[in-house]
Amino acid sequence: MSDEPRIETRLGHLPALDGVRGLAVIIVLLYHHSITWMTGGELTVSMFFTLSGFLITRLLVAEWDKSGTISLRTFYERRARRLFPASIVVLLAVVVIWTLFPGSGRRLAPWEWFAGLSYYENIYLQSAGKSYGGLFGLGNPLQHLWSLSLEEQVYLVFPVLCLFLLRKKMTRRAVWKLFVVLTTLAVGAIALGAYYRTNSPLWSQLPVLEGRCADSSCAYYATEVRVGEFLMGAAFAVLWSVWRYVPKIIDTLRRPFFVALSWPLIVGAFFVWFKIGWQNQWSDVFFPWAVFCNGLITLSIIAYAASGIGMCSFLSWKPLAWMGQVTYTIYLVHWPMFLIWESLRLDPNLPRIRVPGTDWVTIDHFWMFIAKAGSTMVVVCLIYYLLENPVRQRKLWQGKKLFIYLALMALVGTVIAFAGNARRNSTNDVMSTLNEEALALQQQALADLPDLPANAPVVSPVDAELPARIMMVGDSQSWVLASGLDDWEETNQVTVQPSPGVGCGIGENTPITYLGVEQDFRPGCTEWRDSLGPIAQKFRANLVIIVGGTADLSDRKIPGVDGWSHIGQPEYDAWLLEQFTSFIDVMSSAGSQIVWLSTPNVDPPYIAGETGVPPFDEADRSRSARYNELIEQFAEKDDRVVYADFASAVKAHPGGEFEPKMRPDGAHIDLKYAPDLVIWLDQMIRDVYAAP
C-alpha cells in the first residue's frame, strides 16, 4: 500500500439493493408472462447489469485495498460456487424433461443446451440469426440464459483488466486511472449499440455466420455492447472508493428534500422499466440514450441505498430483500417452468377474475401467473436451501468434489442432449403434428355443426351490421387471429369458425423450399384443401375471411415449369392466379361473401433442427408486396372477393409491425396485444358486410 491516505472501500451490505433486485425480478416474471400493459421490460436486465458491475467491482477494489492484489483463483472459484451448482442442476433437469417429453411448446436442440452449459448462449443466438422479438414464440427453455452468459463472459476478463490497470500500487492516482478507463469503455460500448442498431457488426460477415447477425438484435445480445452497462456500475464503484466528496453526498441525500425525492425516483425507475423497450416505440432511443439514462437511474438508487433512509426502509423489507438474494435462482428456474405450464394447454374454463386496468381475466393470465410464479418459487427454495447455499458456504461438495460432480452432471447432460436428439421430431413430423391437430379440430367442428335451416340467420342477433357466421381460412395465421377474437365473438354473438392449414399456401401442394427446408410437399396441406369444401357447405358462412399464405412466398416447383420458381416471376404469378380462382370457387360454393386480407410482412424465427438458416425467402418484403398486389388485382376482377389492406393496419400498430408481444415469433399476430387491430377488423367486417 502507498503512504497516501487510505482509500475507503467498505460500504457494507445494503439490503435496499436486494429489495431493488427483488422488485426487478418480479417485473421480469410479469414481462415473460406477457402482460399487455408492460410494453417494456428489457431495461430491467440493464439495471441488473449495472448493479452487478457495481457490486463485483466493489469486492475487487476492497480485496486489493486489503491485500494489495486480486486473487484470480479465489475470484473464479467463488463465482463457480455461486453459479455452477444451481445452473447445471437446472440444465440437467431441462434436458431430461425436454428429451423424455418432447412435443408442442417443448423444443431443445443439442447445441442450444450446450450453449447454455458453456455460457455462450448470447453468441449462439447471434450466430443462429435469432431476433430478440422472436424468442418468445419459440420453445427453447434456455434462451433466457443469454444474459447470464453475457455476464460471465464479462467477468472472465474484467478482474484481469483491474489487475493490469492497478498494477501493484493502490494509490488514488491508480484508482482514478481505473475510473477513467472504465468510464471511457462504458461510453464507447453503449455508443456502439447505437451504431449496431442500423449497421451490421463487421464480425457478422464472417463466412461461418453467413450474415445471419444482420438483425438489430445483434446489439441486444452483443457482449461488446452490453459490457457498457456493467462498466457504468464498475466505474461508479471505483469512484465511490476514491472520491472525497462521497461522505458529503451521503449527508446531502439524508436531508428532508432529497429523502422525499427518493420516492419519485424509485417510482420513475419502475415506470421506465415497465414502459421503455427494445422493440416498441422507444426502440430508436434504446441505444444509447435509454440504456445510459437507465444506468444513471440505477447509480442514483445505489447512492440512496448507501444513505440508508427514504425509500430504503421500503426496499429493505425482508420479503423483498430475500427475493433479491435469490434473484439468480429465480431467473434461472422461471423460464423453463413457464414453458412447462404453457405446454400443458390447461382448460381455460376456470374461474374468472377481473383486475382493473389489466388483462388478467382468465387462467391464461392471473391464475396462470400464480401457478407459474408459485411453482417457480417452490423449486427456487429447494435449490437455494438444499444445494446453492450449502455449496457456497462450503458445507456441501467441498474441495475437488465440487468440480468432479459438476463435470459428471455436465457430461451426463451433454450425452442426453445429443443422443436424445433422435427422439425429437423432424420438421415434417412437427408440421404434420400441427396439421393433424388442425384437421382434427376441423373434423370435430364439422361433426358438431348443426344442420342449418334454410332460413338460418344472416346477421348477429345483437348487431345487425355484423354477420352471424364467419369462417377464417388460410394458414396458421388465420387460426391465431380467430383465437384472438374470442371476446369479440362472445360480445357480438358472432360464430367464428377457423379452418387453418398450418404452413399451407393458397396454391396447391407442390414441391417447396419452406423456411430453408426443401420438401416434396407440405404435410397435411392436401388434406386441408380437401376439407374446406364440406366445411363451407355445412357451415354456410355469411362471410369468409382469407388471411395468410406464407407458403406461397416460398420457392416452389410448379406444373409446366422446370426447376424452382417464385412469386414475382411471370409463370409463377400466372399459376398462382389460377390457384386463387379454384380456391375461391370452393370458398364461395355456399354463397358466402369473401374478404381477402393482404398478408403482413413476416419474419419467421430460426428453430434449430426444424428450419433452415436465415435469411428466409418468406421474409423478403418484395415477395410479400407482390403477393398482395396479386390479391388486389384478383379482387378487382372477381366480384365475389373484396380486398382489405390488413398489412397496412399491422404496420400502423404502436411499436411497429413486429412489436414483440403482438408478434412473438415474427409471424403470428396475437390480438390480445393488439386491440387496435381488433377495432380495425371489427370495422372492416362491418364495412364489407354492409356493402351492396
From TrEMBL:
Topological relation to the membrane, as annotated: Multi-pass membrane protein
Record flagged with keyword Kinase: no
Cellular compartment(s): Cell membrane
Transmembrane spans: 12-31, 43-62, 83-101, 145-166, 178-196, 258-274, 286-307, 319-341, 366-387, 402-420
A Pfam family the protein falls into: Acyl_transf_3
Gene Ontology CC terms: plasma membrane
Molecular function GO terms recorded: acyltransferase activity, transferring groups other than amino-acyl groups
Limits of the Acyltransferase domain: 15-384
Keyword Lyase annotated: no
Gene Ontology terms: biological process: lipopolysaccharide biosynthetic process
Primary location class: membrane
UniProt feature coiled coil, ranges: none
Keywords linked to the UniProt accession: Acyltransferase, Cell membrane, Membrane, Transferase, Transmembrane, Transmembrane helix
Name of the molecule in the record: Acyltransferase 3 domain-containing protein
